Amino acid sequence: MLKCKDVVASATDYVDKELSWSQSMSMAMHLLLCGHCRRFIKYFKLSLQTLKNKKTISAENASQLSSEIITKAQADS
Amino acid sequence: MDMDSASFLTKLKSQNHQAFNQLVQQYHSSLLTVARTIVGDVWAEEVVQEAWVSIFKALPKFQERSSLKTWIYTILKNEAYSRYKKESKTVSLEAQVPDDQQDRTIEDWLSSSFNKGGGWLNSPSGWDLSSPEALLQEEQLQKCIEHTLELLKPDQKSVFLLRDQEQLAMEEVCNILDISHSNARVLLHRARLKLFQVINHYQDTGEC
Question: Where residue B89 falls among pLDDT bands split at 50, 70, 90?
Fold first, then answer.
């Protein structure tokens, strides 16, 4: 029988659908019975949504950088 | 701007400066992160610059056999490994890896969250911010997350960003970083757990 600790250890494989059929069945059975783990998995998935705020450089820096790159590329060729 | 749209790709392939500028703005930070994983802080900036020059020159030849981002990361990877081979006598990857404080924090969290039988001692309580929009709009939380990402080990951060932010397939992530699938999954899981732990703590306390 899967323990709550095992659910946490397998969360990434579960979310990415990388568990074997028997592991998936064990996980599904555990989640059916355990509200704590259902909540954990729900929040674990939700937390990944926060990465949508992608870090980018400023428009000004990008402009300066791309000018330098283009100048260098044109000088090389 | 959809960077995989046909019109944007057409502009890029004709080396349109404005389109290239947008590409640089969008990917420069992520490329630096990946470059740091391969060559370390000392060479990362230079490697990314060289990669951008190669990318700009090669744009007219981009044949769209892979996605634009996979193509970009592959060029970066080639530049980075080529530099790594050249400088491997002077670059010490071990020296750039920060201590394993993050891993210890995860271990502490795991050991304090479960009883000996593997059941929850402290299961996550209900989150006040329980929608993606609410999480993204919480400025303080975003700062906490950014800080957490900064503290991840370079290889962990690279796997995490390429997989969960850039949404690359695991196979592509492993190929770019030249690591095994099993290693990548361990790194990814620990990074995801760390992110969860930070958000969970913030939801409980309102602090990082």
Answer: low
User: B16 — contact with chain A (CB < 8 Å)?
Assistant: no
Residues of chain B in contact with residue A41, where contact means CB-CB under 8 angstroms, are none
Cβ count within 10 A of residue B134: 13
* Nearest CB partner across the interface for B26, out of A5, A40, A56: A56
Q: Say if B112 is an interface residue toward chain A (CB within 8 Å).
A: no
Distance from the Cα of B197 to chain A's closest Cα (Å) equals 9
Asked, for residue B87, whether it belongs to a domain, the answer is: yes
Q: Are B23 and B76 in contact (CB under 8 A)?
A: no
% of residues, chain B, pLDDT over 90: 49
| N-terminal to C-terminal alpha carbon distance within chain B | 33
Residue B177 pLDDT greater than 90, yes or no: no
Number of domains in chain B: 2
The long-range contacts involving B85-93, CB below 8 angstroms and separated by at least 24 positions, are B87/B39, B87/B43, B91/B39, B91/B40, B91/B42, B91/B43, B92/B40, B93/B40
Q: Are residues B104 and B129 in the same domain?
A: yes
Kindly report the nearest CA distance between residue A63 and chain B, in angstroms: 6
Provide the ipTM.
0.86
Predicted TM-score (pTM) of this structure: 0.82
- CATH for B22: 1.10.1740.10
Same domain for B59 and B108, yes or no, is: no
Q: Residue range A49-77: average pLDDT? A: 88
Please give the residue range of the domain that contains residue B133.
Answer: 97-205
Domain identity same for B117 and B200: yes
The answer to whether residue A32 neighbours chain B at the CB level (below 8 Å) is no
- Residue B90 has a pLDDT of 52
Question: Do B78 and B170 fall within a single domain?
Answer: no
